[in-house]
Design goal:
This protein is of the alpha+beta class. The chain is 14% helix and 28% strand. The protein has 6 helices and 20 strands. The protein has helices at residues 64-74, 141-152, 154-157, 178-187, 200-211, 271-274; strands at 2-3, 6-7, 21-25, 39-43, 78-79, 91-93, 100-101, 107-109, 114-120, 124-132, 226-231, 249-255, 260-266, 290-291, 296-299, 306-311, 317-322, 332-336, 339-348, 356-365. Strands 7, 8, 9, 12 and 13 form a 5-stranded antiparallel beta sheet that branches. It has a 4-stranded mixed beta sheet with strand order 5-6-10-11. A hairpin with a 4-residue loop joins strand 8 (107-109) and strand 9 (114-120).
């Protein structure tokens, strides 16, 4: 199995590692109330599929303006290797909370012992924000709403409601009515889940806070027990592209018998950059691959709204086809009347801020 760009190969019968796994020291926490384990497991083989630490040498080279913009942000925060705990100042880590291998899973061909897996690199600024785990009766609706916001909303919308590009909107200057806000909280919208656990009073308090033009929360008095919420915006350039040098998304073939990476290629592109002649950057991708006995790997999941087929032997792109919407899903394959088909759900939307779609496409393999 793969997580955060590491691949752990275990014996399916007894769970023992095929390649040694080492417990290595990792940076300690800086939060007095917190205890972090001093070591974490690292596989000795295969090597990491993504970068596991970012330095100034890794800052994007998309343009001089992008480099200067990211460098200025980078120097405002701490940085460290993977497993570095968040702190109140903020720690830049990679591959980030949408990095490494995502939920789509990998594909395995038992005939050649190859695992095919797609990854992202999305450096993240991990910062802890204090909140107060109590709501006193005498507190104002704005105060109560602020506490609810800190506990439940900052991870996506930011500590002050400024949003996190590219997919989470700003709540500054929100124009929704109180009724509309409650409807969104109750039903969800886009990638935002429903918060039906809130009482009617809590939803009303949160609506009051969201309509308050001052969301800096600096005037919160310490009431109740101090805890911490996570604020984790991505480190991006001024246009919202990842602040690290490409590739930002890749497809890999890993030999699980030898513990080696056989090949890795950029996966996907951003249409806005392609128009400017900037290609082969790879892109954040969501949805996994499938491998066929005929030696192909099919995968979609990219913001350029395409499905692709790669050669299992060398990663060569053999075929690609435009889709009516981005397909943040894993393809499926089946046989019918002597023909093999590959089918993909094209729902769009999601974490790449793509337009929504509602198509299901099937392709026949000749």
């Amino acid at each position: 199995f793969t997580k955060m760009g590491f691949t752990f190969v275990l014996d399916r019968e007894n769970g023992k590692p095929i390649f040694p796994i080492e417990e290595r020291p990792v940076p300690p926490t800086q939060i007095p109330e917190e205890m972090a384990w001093p070591t974490q497991p690292f596989p000795t083989k295969p090597p990491p599929l993504v970068r596991t630490q970012m330095s100034e040498e890794d800052i994007t080279d998309l343009s001089p303006e992008a480099y200067d913009y990211v460098l200025n942000i980078f120097r405002q925060y701490d940085s460290g290797p993977i497993y570095t705990p968040a702190n109140e100042k903020g720690v830049i880590t990679t591959p980030g909370h949408q990095g490494g291998m995502e939920w789509g899973g990998g594909a395995f061909n038992p005939n050649n012992n190859l695992l095919f897996v797609n990854t992202n690199e999305a450096p993240t600024i991990n910062r802890l924000v204090k909140f107060y785990d109590a709501q006193l009766e005498e507190a104002s609706p704005t105060m109560k709403g602020a506490i609810l916001f800190q506990k439940n909303c900052t991870n996506c919308h930011g500590a002050n409601g400024q949003g996190i590009l590219p997919g989470t909107p700003s709540l500054i200057g929100i124009t929704l009515t109180d009724k509309n806000i409650v409807e969104v909280l109750r039903e969800g919208r886009g990638t935002m889940p429903a918060f039906r656990q809130f009482t009617a009073a809590e939803m009303s308090d949160l609506a009051v806070f969201l309509k308050n033009p001052d969301k800096t929360l600096e005037n919160l008095d310490a009431i109740g027990m101090v805890k911490y919420g996570s604020h984790a915006p991505f480190l991006t350039d001024q246009e919202g592209f990842p602040g690290i040098k490409p590739p930002w998304g890749s497809l890999h073939a890993v030999d699980l018998a030898e513990g080696e990476i056989v090949w890795q290629v950029p996966l996907g592109e951003y249409p806005e950059l392609v128009k400017r002649g900037i290609v082969n950057t790879g892109a954040k991708n969501f949805g996994g691959p499938i491998a066929t006995a005929g030696g192909l790997v099919f995968i979609a999941g990219t913001p350029d709204e395409k499905i692709r087929a790669f050669d299992q032997k060398n990663g060569e792109l053999l075929w690609e086809h435009p889709l009516p919407a981005a397909a943040y899903a894993t393809p499926s394959t089946y046989r019918s009347n002597g023909k093999q088909y590959v089918v993909i759900v094209c729902g769009g939307g999601g974490k790449n801020n793509s337009p929504f779609g509602d198509a299901v496409l099937a392709f026949a393999l000749e």
